Amino acid sequence: MPQGEAAGRGAAQPQDQGWAWMVLLAAVVLQGLTLGFPSCIGVFFKDLQHEFQASNSQTSWFPSIIVAVLHGGGPLCSILVKWFGCRFVVMLGGLLSGLGMVSSSFCRSISQLYLTAGLITGLGSCFSFQAGVTVLGCYFVRWQTLANAVASTGVSLGFTLWPLLSQYLLDKMGWRNTFLIFGGILLNCCVCGAIMRPIQPASGSLLESAKPKEEPGSGTEEAQLSNGASPHHSTLQKHTRRTKCFQMLQKYLAFDIFCQNKGYQIYTIGVAWTMMGFALPHVYLVPYAIHNGVEEGKAALLISIIGLINIFIRPFTGLLSGHRVFTGRRIYLYSLAALLCGLSNFICIISAEFSVLILYCVILSIAMSGVGALTFQVLMDVVEMDRFSSALGLFTILESITLLIGPPLTGFLVDITSDFHYVFYNSSFFLISAALFMGLSFCALEKKNKLKEASKACLDNPSRYQYSETSTEPKTESQYPPAVQYITSI
């Protein structure tokens, strides 16, 4: 098909209306299926532990791997989207997710579960989620912010429904048959991907083309190498490969931004440290409640309460943070939300009564809404938008590493001490320390930048900041000494 004809056909497809709203509905379902799915793993914690005779630490590797791969597979997903387009990647992710859960129902050891339900399902969920978010940038231009906010409600719906469905199926047919059914449910990501038919992106949207663009000069250089124009053919070829690898790392893992941008550096380290404790209640809250005599059905309901409150609070948090009063200050809202998450954990330490745990879930869900709604918005504040995708790659990989090691580390402490309170001690420590680190660091950075700006303004326009000190004795013009100037800053 000629390029002009393809462009014309793409331009004929309306954006921000019509089929775009079907794509948005698919994105809501997609986020509920992918990001919401790890919330139900705690329901199976005790059954898996008993089935495989595994410790708390060994069992917690399972949800940790899912969440870590879900967050850390972003750069790989970006490469696949570049080559094959969003629709293909969403459907590939759905196929992998379903295959992983079906395979996990036949596992005979906990290590096999790490591979099937952990790695394969986590990677599939990553592909479906991130490609589904990316395609919204093609279908929505004017209403892009609204579309992303509406799509994120799917996460809260998933948090609400997955635990309830998991507990019901677990009671009726056991964890193996439940995982088999989950495989069929996750295959619906393929249906969502089928709805996301290709569209010609508008200028300025996230995707300009699903096909890779050839970098200038690369074809000529490769042609010279293949024709043997250089006597150092192999050396140049190796150098070219190293250059391309460096360019790929620069594009998808922005180490240069991390070294040069102090705000990005502080925020990335702070969020990575936050995630060491952020996921712990999701993994251990249900086992903790069951361990303290709460019925299994009521224990699963606790996670659903968190998701239900998130449905209403998260959009409100997004609207509040978008007010012009908070422009440039959203990092402090994020730090406050992380601090509240950490402080709320002390409620569980005081008591494990079901009514007290409900209060804990209400406060935790409000704080979690702030963290979830602001994570990427703050990143947009500290990084220029033309390098945002690169900054996001390194950001998600560091975040996934701490998400991976946090729950098993805490599980190891619980195994040694036989005390579930260490879950909430650890979570509070990481969240509170990260919140204080980010808040105080950005406050100091802001003061430092203001001093630099004042100093620069002083040097650019010194006449505003000068005064003369002269002698009061009358002197002739020829005897008058040059004025002594003092540069001061306001």
From TrEMBL:
Keywords: Membrane, Transmembrane, Transmembrane helix. Signal peptide: none annotated. Residues 20-451 form the Major facilitator superfamily (MFS) profile domain. GO terms for cellular component: basolateral plasma membrane. It comes from the Eukaryota. It is a multi-pass membrane protein. Residues 207-238 are annotated as: Disordered. One of its GO terms (molecular function) is monocarboxylic acid transmembrane transporter activity. The keyword Glycoprotein does not apply. PROSITE patterns: MFS. Residues 221-234 have a biased composition (Polar residues). Its main location: membrane. The chain crosses the membrane at residues 21-45, 61-81, 88-106, 112-139, 146-165, 177-196, 266-287, 299-319, 331-351, 357-379, 391-410, 422-445. InterPro entries: MFS, MFS_dom, MFS_trans_sf, Proton-linked_MCT. It is found in: Membrane. This is MOT6 protein. It comes from Leucopsar rothschildi (Bali myna). The gene is Slc16a5.
